[in-house]
């Protein structure tokens, strides 16, 4: 609440803060990823979610003084031909059923085709979301082509907005983010404003793994445990795969961490995965390995390897 409202003065605040979720849909190759990166201004913006926000596959966040655009990932909308296709569609439905705005991307340099129409029709299934048509790659098209495409797009449905853009020349990107933000609900920021670099992020993830491992462990272990994130990989199914290691100092500790039949390690993985997903705001696959690094606390080389 701002001061004016608190005083009961009826004037509208000049600019209300808005925040919400947007998802870009469209055929493969129409420029969705490039647009996301161009809007966000860096490859992937990671932030720490505030507790009330649900977990989603966040691709990037546009932070502005007047609002926050949270761009969420969806796998493409496909005509389901396989079980995988159906599962992907179910995932699309879960995501798109939940966003505030859907940005339907169509390239300016190709005629509107059956693929575009199919996706456009599917958008009827998501009545909650506002719908914006985004004509991408205008740098590749003549003015005549652009006008033609805008007309065809206008015939598809009543859009909340239609915006031609180029992610390459950055033409109209600011207009697009203005338009998207105007369609978002009035809301305080949903994510912390500070950006966390990938490097810090790995450190934080490693710390969460270490915490999860310590949880329920005996007292003698804590100082003997360390964790590292060794590799990460974006998977086809939209999950982020994280490969991490837990280091122990003595052989006997390995068994403690792994537990009977691997039960302890599974619990650690489960707890850590929850925390990491909350940190990243997206679903992950976590692979944990327990490694023996003899007397690592006394070994400078080992300490270096563990980031101390
Ligand atoms: N000239 C031009 N090329 C662009 C623009 N935006 C994207 N491209 C190019 O179009 C191609 C596809 O872009 P992507 O962003 O990968 O498209 P996408 O829709 O995310 O593709 P999928 O991940 O397959 O769904 C890439 O070669 C981009 O460099 C643009 O504004 N202008």
Observed structural traits:
alpha/beta; three-stranded mixed beta sheet; 308 residues; 10 helices; elongated; 9 strands; GMP Synthetase, Chain A, domain 3; binds guanosine-5'-triphosphate; six-stranded mixed beta sheet
Description:
Pfam families: KH_2, MMR_HSR1. Helix 7 runs antiparallel to helix 9. The chain has 308 residues and is of the alpha/beta class. It starts with a helix and ends with a helix. The protein is built from ten helices and nine strands. It binds guanosine-5'-triphosphate (GTP). The site of guanosine-5'-triphosphate has 16 residues, from helix 2.
Short structural description:
Helix 7 (198-214) packs antiparallel against helix 9.
Q: What's the arrangement of secondary structure elements?
A:
Layout lengths: L2 H4 L11 E8 L6 H9 L17 E7 L2 E6 L10 H14 L4 E7 L6 H9 L7 E7 L6 H14 L4 E4 L8 H10 L15 H17 L11 E9 L5 E9 L2 H8 L4 H18 L3 E9 L7 H6 L3
Parallel strand pairs: 1-3, 1-4, 4-5, 5-6, 8-9
Antiparallel strand pairs: 2-3, 7-8
Helix pairs in contact: 7-9
The structure holds guanosine-5'-triphosphate.
């Amino acid at each position: 609440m701002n001061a004016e409202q608190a005083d009961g003065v009826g004037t509208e605040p000049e600019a209300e803060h808005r925040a919400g979720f947007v998802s870009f849909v469209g055929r493969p190759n129409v420029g969705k990823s490039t647009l996301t990166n161009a809007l966000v201004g860096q490859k992937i913006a990671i932030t720490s979610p505030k507790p009330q926000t649900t977990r989603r596959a966040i691709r990037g966040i546009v932070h502005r003084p007047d609002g926050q655009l949270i761009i969420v990932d969806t796998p493409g909308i496909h005509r389901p031909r396989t079980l995988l296709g159906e599962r992907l569609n179910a995932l699309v439905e879960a995501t798109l059923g939940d966003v505030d705005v859907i940005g339907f991307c169509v390239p300016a340099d190709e005629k509107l085709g059956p693929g575009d129409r199919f996706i456009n029709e599917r958008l009827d299934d998501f009545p909650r979301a506002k719908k914006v048509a985004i004509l991408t790659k205008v740098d590749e098209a003549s003015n005549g082509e652009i006008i033609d495409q805008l007309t065809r797009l206008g015939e598809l449905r009543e859009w909340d907005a239609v915006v031609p853009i180029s992610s390459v020349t950055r033409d109209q990107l600011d207009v697009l983010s203005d338009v998207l933000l105007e369609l978002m609900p009035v809301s305080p920021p949903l994510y912390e404003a500070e950006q966390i670099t990938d490097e810090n992020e790995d450190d934080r993830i490693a710390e969460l793994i270490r915490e999860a491992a310590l949880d329920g462990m005996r007292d003698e272990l804590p100082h003997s445990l360390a964790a590292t994130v060794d590799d990460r990989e974006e998977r086809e199914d939209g999950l982020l795969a994280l490969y991490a290691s837990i280091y122990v100092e003595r052989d006997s500790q390995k068994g403690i961490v792994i537990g009977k039949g691997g039960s302890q390690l599974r619990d650690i993985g489960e707890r850590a995965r929850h925390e990491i997903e909350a940190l990243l705001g997206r679903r992950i696959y976590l692979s944990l390995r327990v490694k023996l690094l003899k007397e690592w606390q006394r070994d400078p080389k080992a300490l270096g390897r563990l980031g101390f």
